[in-house]
Each structure stands twice: as C-alpha cells, then as structure tokens.
Amino acid sequence: MIALLIANSLALASLLIMLASGLALIYGLRDVINFGHGAIYMLGAYLGYSVALVGGFWLALAVVPILLALLGVAFEYLVLRPLQGRSHIEVALVTLGLGIILGQIIIFVYGGVARGVEAPGFLSGSITVFELSYPVYRIFLIAMGLGSCALLALWLSFTTSGLYVRAVSQDPSVARMMGINADRLSLLVTSLSAAFAGVAGVLAGPYLSVDPGMDVTMIVNCLIIVVIGGAGSIFGAIIAALLFGFVQVAGSVFLPDLAALAPYILLMVVLLVAPRGLGRGRVLN
Amino acid sequence: MSREAATDGNLRGAAVGPLGGASWRAPLAMLSAAILFVLGATAPTRFASEFVLRLGEGGLLLGILALSVAFLMNQAGLVALGAASIYGGAGYLFAIAISQWDATAIEALLLSFLIMLAYSAILGALIVRTNPLAFMMLTLAAGEMISHSVMLEGLRDYTGGADGLVVSFPDSILGMGAADFASPTRFWLVAWVAAWLAGLALWAVRRSRLGVILRAVRENEERMRFSGFDTYAPRLIAFVLINCIAAICGLLHVLNAGFVSPDSLGLQVSTNALVAALMGGVGGSTGPILGGLIFSFAQDQFSAFGVTQLSTGIAVVVFIVVFPRGILGGVQLFARSLGSRRVRP
Known about the structure:
heterodimer, A: 11 helices, disordered C terminus, B: mainly alpha, ABC transporter involved in vitamin B12 uptake, BtuC
C-alpha cells in the first residue's frame, strides 16, 4: 500500500519535475515566469500523439523534444529578447497570451477531443515486484523523471555552463559583472526547458490522457510547485514536485472527495509556514 | 525652435492656469460627464434593440470587472488572474443561499457579498505580501481552486456540478423582481449606474491618500518601508476593495442571467477582464469600461468564426507589446501629439 502510494506519487512527480524545473530555470535567468509553459507541454503531447501514430512512441520521444527545443529558440529570439526592457509582469502576461494562442491553435488543428496514446509493446504490461503488481510504464516514467533530475543536477553542479546558470540565478547583476553572457545562457536554458516540456508531453500521453484542458491544469500545478519550491531554485522545485505528487496521490487515496483541492491546501499551508518557499533560490518575495 | 515652443507652452500654461484653466475645466468635465451619464442611461433603451442592449450590458459588466483588474494593475502593479473566482463565486453563493438556505433576495445578496469579502481578506492576507509575479501565480492558483471546488462530487447537491444552478427569487430587490433584472431594457439602467459608481469610486480612491501610497509602494516597496510606511495594509485594502467590486459585478451578472455555471468561474472570464482592461487602457476609470464594451461587441463578431479565445490571446499580446496604454491611452497620446504640433509654428 505505502509502496504503491510512493511509486504513484513518484510517477506523477516525474512529469512535474520536468516541467517545473524548466519554469524555474527560465525564472532564475530571466526573472520571467513562462505562463505559456502548459501550452508547450500540450503541444508536446499532441505532437507526440501524431508522431507516435506514424513512427511509434520511441520516434516521438526522440523527435518531439528536438522540435520543441527549436520552438524554445524561437521563443527566446522573438519574445524574450525583444521584450527584455519591459517589466517582468508584462512579459509574463505576453507569455500568458501566447500560451492561449498556442493552445487554441492546437485545439483548432486536433479538434477539442481527448486522444489516447498506446505505450510501446514491452512497456505496456505490469510486472510483479515484491508481490506487488505495478504497470511497467510508470516505472519507466519514474526512471525517466529521476534520470532527467540526475542529469539536471549533474549539469548544474559540474559543468561550467551549469555554474554560470547557478550564478545568474543567485545574483544576476554580479554574474553579469563577472562577464557571464546571460543572453547565451538564456538561449540554452529556454530551449532546454521547452525540450523538457516536450519529453513530459510525450511521456504524459500513455499515462494521463492527451486532452485540450491539459495545459491549464499543468501550468497551475507547475506554478504551485514553483511557488512552494521557492522560485528560481531548481532543487526546491524538485523537492516541491515530489511533495506535490505525494499530496495529490495520497489525497486521491485517502480523501477522494477533496483530492482536487489537495494541491491548493498544500500551497496555502506552505505559504503560511514558509512564505518564501522551501528552496533557497532567489525567492519571489 | 523646440525650446521656444516649450517656453511658449509654459508661458501659456502659466498664464491660463491660475486665471481660467482649472476653474472652467472642472465644471466643463462635470457637465459633460453628467450629459454622458443621462444620455447613456436613457438613449440606448429607446433606440437600441434587445440584442444590442444585451451585448452592451455584458460589456458594462465585463467593464466593471476589468475596472477592478485595471485598478490593481495600475495602482499597485499587481495583476490578478483570479477575478473570475470572485465574480463567479459571489454568483454561486447567491444562488446557493436562495435555493438551499431559503434566504430572501436581499439576505442572499448581503450574505454572498460578505462571504466573498471575508474570503478575499483571508486570501489577500496570505498573498499580497509576495512579489508581483508570485502574486499573479497565486491568484491564478486560487482561482483554479475555487473553480475546482465547485465541481467537487461532495458539493454536487449544493453547486449542481457541471450543470450549474438556476436562480429564481420570488421577492424583489429595491423594487425590481427577477423578471425586471432579466429584462434587457430594465437591466440596462442598473448596469449603467453600477459601472458609473464603480468607476467613480475607484477614481476617488486613486486620488486619495491610499492611491498615492499604493503607487509609491508599486514604484519601490523597500524605500516606502524604509520611510516608515506600512506597505502591507494598503495593498491588502486595495485587494479587498477590488474584490468587492468584482463580487458586486458577479452578483449583478447572476441577477441578470438568472443562472450560474462553472463557466463563470473559468480562467477565460479572468483573461477576458484582463484583455478588456488592457484594451481600454489601465490608467483610468473610463478605459476599462470602454474596453469591456468594445470586447463584448468584438466577441460577438469573432464568435461567428469560433475564434473568441484565440482573439483573446492575440489581444493580450498585441495590447501589451504594441499599445501598452490601451485604446484610450493611444487616442490621448495621438490627441496630445496633434495639440503640440499645433502649438509649433
């Protein structure tokens, strides 16, 4: 029971980590919360659906992140850089508008119906671990989530560009004074964040459904996680995503009536106890 | 040349200012506002069709909601993305009070208003201390929380789930029964007066000491705190104030429509109000109302093509990137540039 609960919350948290860390990365560099992130994720899911129909799930998992990384490059050059001089609130509102536009285009192209994506052959069954039967796909999801988490942590901790990202996130002006090119970093981070959203979108296909409301649901969840984690703090976001996943899954098991409200209750509690979030990033208040 | 023009302008200003400028301008503005008020209150119900009146009423209500969003945005630098939760929440409470708690219409109005007041005070106490970006995220999250809670299975008996609730009250409010509120010709005056009252109230707050403090906190919170000002209470008061206006707007809507549905709590309502505010210009009281009216009529045009939400998104981007001061601000700038051109020889 407890093992199942933890496994399920890890599976959900895996998706959330990929999305929320992307949000937190961009926030750390640019001070911008990308309200269009949910739409990018939805685009990833629908593109994944299309590519999977043609070339199978694995091709989708390889192609879609690359396509979305290109979208991230466009986002950086066409939106973030030209609007650099504007207030962060205005840029955030522009991303909100762009997210609505993207979401509507997707609905226009695919119609407003939910789509299902089949997991590939050997991921579709269940296996029995310690007398517990568990879907293989969720284990795969957890492996992907923890794997990307580890990659992200390695990148941030041990590479030069990771060091620069941490430096800019901690103190943008000092980092720039030390000669770090924040624009070039931002290009990297924006495309990375969009690519992660693409991976999450494709992975979400067989796990959750691919439906027109997924962008709003996911962006709201991610915003809650970013606030709980202390915005700009990637490690805070990871912890918060794990916590969030656990609360939501536990909520749906123990309090099914109130499960939909569990994330918000978590948010309110964290805001009351630690208004600055859990992480030690450059906080939002 | 330009220096001459500038001094010329200054001299003119100096000559006109103390003598005639202020003394004739204020009464003229009041007179034209009064004429506009009377014209708007009487003319549309005589000349406009019921369909146009309905669009106009929707526009006025959206304008009131936009007014609340614009006020907080312009005065406090905070963007509220949860306007719908107050707007729809008040409507839901009113409907629940009427149908479940057997309240009279007046009691239901007061009760739902007070509950929304308490809710926004508690929510505001939690979230106004955060920075503007976090505030925006948190209002979005709180709005989604309300719209999810209406759909909860356990509350289905109260909220009617996805179907919403029909509101019918037998008694009257200030001499108007349910049928009067539903009639486009009778409701127009209510919406029109409400829009004016909301606009005037926020105009007065903008000119008050609270407005000055809010703008100062918006510019530099740290400096204000350092100067010994409380930066928390003014923002909380502003948040509660605009939510009161949003709640009144929601109550008017439910009185007019006669039903509440989960749509009224959706993110779309909040973004519509935001777009209306951006479209009209967030700087004053006229802009958002005008924006609401424009939005309502434009939405009617666009809905024929099924692209309402798409155009909402495009409007957000265009009005922030290209016309940050909205239509009204743009017109004012244009007029001013015409005026200054005339001064130059």
